[in-house]
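ugh ok fine here u go
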Amino acid sequence: MNFIVTAAIHVSAAPTGSSSNLPGILVKENRLIPATSVLDGKRLSNTKYSLGRRDSDLSVVLDKLKAQADSWLIQGPWSVTTSKKLPPGGDIHDYASQAPYWWPSSNTTDGCPYIQRDGQRNPESDEYTNHADRGKMFQSSYILSLAWYYTGQDNYAKHAGDILRTWFITAETRMNPNLDHAQIIPCQNEGRSIGIIDFSQGYTSVVDAAAILATGAPGWSKDDQRSFRDWNIQFLQWLNQSDFGKEENAAENNHGTFAAMQIAALALFTGDKQLATQKVLFGETLINRQIAANGTQPIEIARTRSWHYSTLNIVAVTRLAAIGRKVGIDIWRYQGPDRQNLFNAIKFLIPYATGTAKWEYKELEFHAYAATDIIHAAADAGLGDAKQAVEKFEPPPGGDLWPLRPAPEQLDAIS
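structure:
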């Protein structure tokens, strides 16, 4: 085993004698440290402290975060029960989405069979509104919870709590904890294992949002946190035991990476450190399988959106690395039998992110800023090339929020 073991820092409960009895937080120097699964809770606490001391650089970033949070205050909450199109089986509490890259045949009256056009999104898939609403729910709850944590403004926390309760807890509007009907292909099936990526790409941010709110946010009670945890216990069981879950975990491309990362985060959140460790250790296999010695990702560069998927897969690996630190495993320093490693994968992408080289593989819509967060992550992990690149890359739309939410996100959504 080639992983480097470090001290685990994830906190699952407040220490004995703490002045707080809220679950999943640590009180240190009168500061609350969220028990986040991907984000570094201690780093968030230190950043909040720096903002309190009027750090001017951080204040500029906070203004950008607040601008995003303010835009979310007038949107939502959302629910699976409001979809314009019912899921197969007719249960409005089931999440449903349609495979975006599949199009009806032009030479048949009913459009069957549907034909795949990789990277080209069929607008018909928007008829299942759960997919778009899910994305809004993910991002809004995350940004609002962070805005509350850093500013203390109650309206951010109350709206974030309302968004999470509506989607996951309230009986009339909650989602069933499964993805049986995700990424449906009309004429062919009622859902696919591949549909798990609808959640695995971004759902861990929602789990972190709840952990942040659990540090004492108004409008988010202990009962809310307990109910949300119970939902995730059921969802994690489905991810591990359903046929779809098993198939997705076996995927060799970015789907398998995101599946492992999501399970690791949910296991950590729900208290199963053994499962979290197991999935982090699986990162060795993922790196061996997906990254070549020269840093390319052969499976992803073969796609029509090769840049998007190359950066996307590394988002999942770097998030898994962040989870690994909480269970004492450092996959940043892992090197495979053919010298595959995470640093090389990011070093390969840096010239294209900074504009010093032109991407030579097929890409329908190149956005250099897609690599912003993973370069930040590599710089924080000690990669010299990444530290130099941080000052040169194109910031994403809405600004570079890394100093306030240091966990890689997919920044070039193609939905």
